[in-house]
Amino acid sequence: MTGAGLRELEREVVACRRCPRLVAWREEVARVKRAAFASEEYWGKPLPGFGDPDARVMLVGLAPAAHGGNRTGRIFTGDRSGDWLFASLYRTGFANQPTSVSRDDGLRLTDAWVSAAVRCAPPANRPLPEERDNCLPYLARELSLLASVRVVVALGSFGWDAALRGLAAAGEPRVRPRPKFGHGASATIGRFTLLGCFHPSQQNTFTGKLTEPMIDDVLGRARSLAR
User: Fold this and answer.
1) Peptide bond into 177 cis (omega under 30)
2) How many domains does the chain have?
3) CATH number of the domain within which 160 lies
């Protein structure tokens, strides 16, 4: 049932046109393209989550990159943030290879599922609150369908906020006071443990705000807690 439910959710996500601003932007980017990818056919649609349907760890990012996931058709694939994330997933035993460059590159995740708060590439990488809310039911359904997930890793404060909202929408109790985001922060919410990790954006990795040992430590903790 879970597999069928995830496939149905994937079809709904890919067909979504709820946010006119995001629809216009993702399709314009796919049409105009970046010069380096001029010969490629862009995905230009919303992105479903992907990974192991039996995952015990779920990662929640912000949104697809305009010339990353919006181009390749897979979240965190084909951009610098994804380079960092999948290299760490490989080092911590969740991925069979350290790179993610296309939907058919042979990448397989074990015990991990990768998702996002917003499923379309937003202008300036900044979704509006109503766009986040339009995507919230998709995240809540993923959390319900992925019955083995016990740990949610939020990549950045936006992912943390979305994870809290998604867990509440999936029927988990609201924690008061509201847990605050921070790298290494944790909160117990019903049957889940929520962990915070700085987003692997260039802004964080180039400045040293997020290092390889730091992201590896969070993902290692997630693996241990999910056992």
Assistant:
1) yes
2) 1
3) 3.40.470.10
